[in-house]
Amino acid sequence: MYKVILIALTLGMVSCVSSKKFKTSQEENLSLQASLKKCQENLEDCVSKKEMSDKTYNSQLTELQTGVNSRNEKIKNLEEQLEVIKKTNNNLLDRLSDLSVVNKAGAESIQKSLDAMNEKDKYIKNLTSEMSRKDSINLSLVMNLKKSLGNISSDDINIEVKKGVVYISLSDKLLFRTASATINESAGATLEKIAKILNDQNNVDVLIEGHTDNVPMNTDCIIDNWDLSTKRATAIARILQRKYNVDPARITAGGKSEYSPKSGNDTEAGRRINRRTEIIILPRLDQFFKMVVPATK
Fold this sequence. Notes:
Blueprint: H1 2-97, H2 104-148, E1 157-162, E2 165-171, H3 172-175, H4 188-200, E3 204-211, H5 225-242, E4 251-255, H6 268-274, E5 276-283, H7 285-292
Parallel strand pairs: 3-4
Antiparallel strand pairs: 1-2, 2-5, 3-5
Helix pairs in contact: 1-2
């Protein structure tokens, strides 16, 4: 009788232990399933963002390439027209040389006119060649920048070509603490990549512009939005020079406060877009003026 009771108690205890283990295993399984679902959702979100970023990049690249192709076609047409004019001028000169009625002074005057036209022909060819070269440089810069900075959210960085120059627009949260001109430590990696491309392309100048929203501010260190935008621009200039060895002679820094917005300031999303620092890559001014102003004798 005692043996029967002992066996029954033993079986009961084993059953309780097994039940607890089973319940614990069920709870762990549910927790793991929830974690797996969260990971899957995060993965889908990342894939979606990457697809959107790739789509934007491909669209901008196609647009830029189309512009370059259009410019090249115009250059080709202009060169063909110039070649026709040149042949016409040469034919005219040959005919004039055979005409005994044209006196020496008249022939010299015509020759000078033809020489002047040839000089203009040479100037136009140089100008179109420089414009084509500039477009090629911009295309190369944009491709290298997007490749190097492709892992950064499009909310924090935007690269585009406007009016023939490359604009890199960086959000304030990527670079600075709130209402401060102190650069975040995490911004160093981004600025280093930009500096490397600037150093590789040393025939361009760099304009750094600070921008703010229209919310007034005044602290012990910052007087107003003019002060904040200017200090942020010069802070970027200093770190490019001192830490990443960009030639300071190529850098210009300035602030535009709230007066060059990209969006309206009536919403937080608009104000966030306006709080930015723009690094603008420009052709060298001395080279530009040599290109557009013909040399005088």
